Amino acid sequence: MATSMANLDIESTVRLNNGVQMPVLGLGVYQTPPERVTQNAVKFALKVGYRHVDTARIYGNEADVGEAIRESGIPRKDLFVTTKLWNSNQGYDSTLRACEASLMRLGLDYLDLYLVHFPVPDVRKESWRAMEVLLKKGRCRAIGVSNFTIRHLEELIGESHVIPSLNQVEFHPFLYQKELLKYCQKQGIQVEAYSPLARGERLKHPRIGSLAEKYAKTPAQLMIRWGLQRGLVVIPKSTREERIRENSQVFDFDISDDDIRSLDSLNEDLRLNWDPTNVT
Ligand SMILES: NC(=O)c1ccc[n+]([C@@H]2O[C@H](COP(=O)([O-])OP(=O)(O)OC[C@H]3O[C@@H](n4cnc5c(N)ncnc54)[C@H](OP(=O)(O)O)[C@@H]3O)[C@@H](O)[C@H]2O)c1
Q1: What is residue 269's predicted lDDT score, i.e. its pLDDT?
Q2: Would you please indicate which residues are annotated as catalytic (active-site) residues?
Q3: Relative orientation angle of helices 219-229 and 206-214, to the nearest 10 degrees
């Protein structure tokens, strides 16, 4: 059964497994160019009500996210900032250093969520040990992973003290990762949908178009809403003000269970990013 979220709004949160509240909608900034473009996108998003930004060391725009946050004047405690540990920084000591470097670039005292960006073989166990230390020291309020399959999660849970709060993975109707979602829900791991718009590549799909029309919403709004009703945290990216606003106007309609299932059935295992399936 899909979740009905009729009474939720842009500031609504989910509770992570350690009690931290995380806004269900965030702005992604992958491939958002640094300096003015990132600063303007984040500033505009915060102006129209977003309270959550998803960046990463490898996106090269952490400093600009930090700048926009400061310029917004919004109290730090009201914002949720995620960044990620890049692959070449994995390992125990280098993870500790990478987190401090991200904090420095962002100009923040703590992160809300720090994610292991990818399950890099051999080093990911040591990286997670350092993530646990960062959590304990209060450098981040929650720790999680990204691009982890069930197998990677099982391995991690089997050898760790702290179960990840979240797994950020590619997730949209054309990549409906039902088994992974079920597994994470059972373990209390929140799933976060990246590329929730399938990077814009399926917005003209006829079923997306006809259902969007039925609810008098845009294809992008329909896809974001599907993710929210499937219980995901959703982080669409745009650099354009009108789209950043459009992508946030997803709290005034409810997709019926039948239509949620119709969207589920669009799955074609479409991966538009890296595929961790065979990573040992
Ligand atoms: N952990 C990971 O490995 C990983 C991997 C990929 C992404 N992510 C995160 O997830 C975020 C979102 O994923 P994504 O950037 O890959 O893709 P996405 O959000 O699915 O789609 C972004 C694309 O859709 C366009 N778009 C946005 N809103 C639109 C609208 N309302 N109507 C029409 N087109 C629209 C954007 O163009 P314009 O900008 O020109 O509007 C851009 O080309 C990233 O920014 C990043 O934070 C994480």
Answers
A1: 97
A2: 59
A3: 80
